[in-house]
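Proteins fold reproducibly. Next comes an illustrative record:
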Amino acid sequence: MISIESFIAGFAYGGTTVLVGQPMETLKTLTQVQSTATAASAATGVTNPSLIQTATNLYSTAGIRGFYRGGLPLLLGGGLMRSAQFGVYQSVLPTLEKRYGRTDPKNYWLGCINPHVVAAGWAGGIGRGLVEGPFEMVKVRNQVLSGWHFRDIFQGFGTTLLRNSGLFSGFVIYMDIFKQQIEQKRDLTVTPFVKAGICANLAWLTIWPLDVVKTRRQSGKFDGKSLAWILGDAFRSGHMYRGLSVGMLRSFIANGASMEVYTLVERELKKRVQ
């Protein structure tokens, strides 16, 4: 069962995310790529300024346009990859329920996690990753001013797939738990902005170290280093959650605003179909 409305609404979600969150996304990327001058990372030649210093340096050298650096690849691909994640999710979930029946809440994992939501979310994350990988690599290289060639287009692709699968499945799991525990049990109405902002932040917090590794692999500043080496270096230098503060701020605002747009577009499209 293909959900065309969810694919279209997902495209609107992706475009909104880029327009609203790109300045903070650029700061997140620059912060994640920076590394302390440890023996393990000295060869990369990157420094360790604070977030404020990074923002100040970016503005002094590139002005406001610098904060939107790398935005074009995401603007072009952002709609497609969000379309893929929501479209695949909303297509897989009813397919699972039709084939196996709705999961009894008594059989939820840990009493609150619907296994069908987990599977559909993981599939949606893979769908997004298959589209996002090349666009994300180009975005990161543009943000850190590192040149690239076509042969680099799939650098970090596997890490991007893994990150996106965990990220989107986490997002829909938290959204489902929020619906169960807050909206249904407590009969509270929460706006899509607040609900999506909270759940997106929880999902990012869950997989953040993978995002740091993904960004560093795609930056071109850690060439020749394996995923295990980059992960170990981030752990040793205390950078597993580097860029988290600006990333959480971007996530809450961008995903909250995007979910408002997604909800509106999907609702209007379903009205026209009925």
Observations:
- The longest helix spans residues 4-33.
- Confidence is low (pLDDT under 50) at residues 36-46.
- The helical segments are 4-33, 51-67, 71-100, 115-143, 157-184, 192-218, 227-236, 244-273.
- The two ends are 16 Å apart (CA to CA).
